[in-house]
């Protein structure tokens, strides 16, 4: 799909999503719908969708390990192996996972192929995606942690600590609290910055532009709208945060109520968050859960150490040579086919040797020779 069409479609959907609560709450006072019913439905969809996705992933067969990661596999003792890139046990896998989830290590190792001075190929330093992704994800996390103050009473210490660290750039008239602007929360702007840089990357790099679809632009636009409405609420068009907390506490304690006078901007913010939450399990955003279920990440590479037997193998009836000979030995001896074990004969009677055994071939071949040949 043409990238302009993708951007227009995504932008249009987000605009409609903004207009829905604007009209609904402002013109028709639908506070209960946008403040209670939709958020509950969104979280229900989120949990059901999440479980559905995890179960459907869990059901896909992974009959063997797929070590597509870089790094030397564990092998002979004098060859140095890479215990995080190609772990041979669970400890290594946990280490790899921690590095991946907390530092986006595979993105850090990303390189860009380029032609240098004609047909020569070179691999260029490429850390921008890693940097933008870190900025975006960590600021998102900090914003979400800070929001816990709306949903908890008393507010946990770690939430207060995160908010304190996040507001290290004080813009008010210090030290007189209550004067000037509220403390500037860096994470809100870092989130907006991160999401904008990720969008620009898709827009400006021709390869990225070519492969981008509405499903790539839509979450970026939706998160941008969430951050923008949040920033507007905090710094410009103030909302009644006491009533917001009343609503939020009501939602989590299952005694919901939608107090008056919060301001329509809050309902737009909450509705966009609800859409994001409901959309989450069915979108690319599910990589949050997928990373933990990815066989190339969560399985150690012990293919050379352990014999892996396909757990879905159905039982196959086999007939070994021993069983075959056991069954047909008498007949084989009768027609002179060499056997590995001569039939037992009653005491005193001498077993009549098969023809070939009785008269060895000219070259003096014995039973032992033939057996050796067969092997
Ligand atoms: C995906 C989840 C969410 C994101 C990414 C998000 C993002 C933001 C951002 C970036 C701000 C700007 C100010 C700041 O940095 O704190 C903000 C403010 C705000 N958000 Fe959210 N938000 C989310 C969920 C919610 C929810 C569920 C509520 C409902 C209680 C909410 C209510 C508010 C309010 C009331 C403000 C203004 C804060 C103030 O005036 O101090 N947000 N949000």
| Broad shape | elongated
In percent, how helical is the residue content? 55-70%
**Nearest-integer average pLDDT:** 87
Label the structural class.
mainly alpha
End-to-end Cα distance: 63 Å
Which second-level CATH architecture of the largest domain applies? Up-down Bundle
Q: In what order do the strands lie side by side in the largest sheet?
A: 1-2
**How many domains comprise the coordinates?**
2
Largest sheet: 2 strands, antiparallel
Strand content: under 5%
> What is the highest CATH level, the class of the largest domain?
Mainly Alpha
Annotation, overall tally of beta strands: 2
Ranges where pLDDT stays below 50 over 5 or more residues in a row are 173-180, 354-375
Main attributes?
binds protoporphyrin IX containing FE, mainly alpha, 16 helices, elongated, two-stranded antiparallel ribbon, 375 residues, Fumarate Reductase Cytochrome B subunit
